[in-house]
Amino acid sequence: MELNNTALVKGIKSGIGILLIGSCVGLIGNVSNWLIKKLNDSFYYKIDIDSKDKSYEWVMYWLSSNDSIKGSNHLSAETTYNSVGKNPRIIFVPSVGNHRILYKGRSLWVNRVRDPQFDLGSGAPFESIQLTCYKSNKNILEDLIKDAMRLSLNRDFGKTVIYMNDGGSWQRFGNPRTIRSLDSVILADDLKKTVIYDIKEFLNNEVWYRNRGIPYRRGYLLYGPPGNGKSSFITAIAGELNLDICIVSLSQKDMNDKKINQLLNNAPPKSILLIEDIDAAFNKQRKIIEESQSNNNLHSDGLTFSGLLNALDGVASQEGRLLFMTTNKLDFLDEALIRDGRVDLKLHIQNATKQQARQLFKHFYNLDNNSNAMCEKFAQNIQDYQLSMSQIQGFLLKYIHSPEGAIENINLLNPVPIN
Ligand SMILES: Nc1ncnc2c1ncn2[C@@H]1O[C@H](COP(=O)(O)OP(=O)(O)OP(=O)(O)O)[C@@H](O)[C@H]1O
Question: In terms of one coarse class, where is the protein primarily found (predicted)?
Fold first, then answer.
């Protein structure tokens, strides 16, 4: 019995011993962590930048053009294209991990961190960058971010940035485009004035909308035969009003109701949302098929008509949402898609009138008023609404340096003889 008690006491003692050692180890661990943190805090200064913030894109762009990053032994290659998807170019950015760089002759560290979690909407991983420098050089981190911002804004200044959707998130597409001037788009009547006035009214009246509880968004539908300037006009509007363009591709394989909702409600600030050829993705026929599927309790995992309508009606972004849709086939569209509130202004862009042909001729050859008679001669041989503007432009391109040649040969474009 006594033996048993002694064994018990020994057991308790060794248990307490282990506990004490465990606690001491834990305590030492905590103290050393605390010390490291304290030392870190007193020696280093850090700034975290989340990939959802605009400054992340600025700093990554800055890093890609910073020479000292090339000394790093682990970079990531990223391919960029020009605005028409050509001329691939590789840029190198820091890969996930820690990198030391020099800025203004000082050392600093860039730690790119990839979160194990993925954004369920876009399928892209969450990322962040941590910039670290010695506390004594604290200001250089803020200077770096400001420099990065200036560099990016300079790159985009006077240009239109195009974004395309990659799943449910927006990615810059190629290099920003040179602005297309409004003068270069020739439309009938006062269409340009009407639309620009309408958009400016909208952009300047946020409070008016908010006070009345009216969703702060505006939708435009441009419809009419191909090649008459629908896309060109939208590009020129973006240039005129200093807006970017977000092209929504509804036909992407993995597009679904959730992603379209995210896209339409999280567009980059100061941008136009553009859905081209909306009839290709959604027309009356497709709606009928979907309705019959849902009557038969068949559920769609992809993008549905009601999903698109919900996204269009979703919470408007802070900046106000400008949506443009284009179609060649107005009759194919379901009424619900283009009803008031979803589409506020419908603009018919028709084939060329004589007057448009005259202006195009003048603009194409950069002629002044002394050449009005020549422009008139060209225009009087164009019948209203018979040819598209792109057909006339294509014809003029054959006589790129010779307006006289274009007039002489106009019967090749239009059978009406010159008087
Ligand atoms: N109204 C116009 N003024 C000046 N150029 C025009 C006009 N319409 C068409 N063009 C020229 O024709 C080409 C095609 O124009 P654009 O793509 O804008 O037409 P669209 O109406 O959007 O055609 P689609 O319906 O096929 O998309 C462009 O090169 C553009 O410069």
Answer: mitochondrion
**pLDDT score at 268:** 86
The residue type of 206 is E
Q: 351-363 pLDDT, tens per residue?
A: 999 999 999 999 9
The Cβ-side half-sphere exposure at 10, using a 13 Å CA radius, reads 6
> Cβ–Cβ contacts within 10 Å for residue 30, how many?
10
Strands 217-223 vs 244-247: parallel, antiparallel or unpaired: unpaired
- Pocket probe for ligand 1: among 228, 276, 329, the residue whose CB has the most ligand atoms within 8 Å is 228
Rounded to two decimals, what is the model's pTM?
0.77
**How far does CA 249 lie from the centroid of its chain?**
11
| Residue type, position 130, single letter | Q
Tell me if 232 CB under 6 Å of ligand 1: yes
**Using a 6 Å cutoff on CB, does residue 226 contact ligand 1?**
yes
Residue 185 Cβ inside 6 Å of ligand 1? The answer reads yes
**Residue 388 contacts residue 225 (beta carbons within 8 Å):** yes
Q: How far is the CA of 232 from the centre of ligand 1 (A)?
A: 6
User: Between vectors from CA 300 to CA 295 and to CA 306, what angle results, nearest 5°?
Assistant: 75
Q: How far is the C-alpha of 175 from the C-alpha of 61, rounded, in Å?
A: 12
252, amino acid identity = Q
Measuring from atom 11 of ligand 1, which residue has the nearest CA?
390
The single-letter DSSP state of residue 292 is H
* Residue pair 133/45 in contact by the 8 Å Cβ criterion: yes
pLDDT by residue (tens digit) across 131-148? 999 988 889 999 999 999
Confidence of residue 122 (pLDDT cuts 50, 70, 90): low
Reported ipTM: the value is 0.98
pLDDT in tens, 98-121: 999 999 999 899 999 988 776 655
Q: Which domains does the chain have, with CATH numbers?
A: 45-157 (no CATH), 177-348 (3.40.50.300), 354-412 (no CATH)
Q: Is the CB of 231 under 6 A from ligand 1?
A: yes
Note whether 244 and 238 are within 8 A (CB): yes
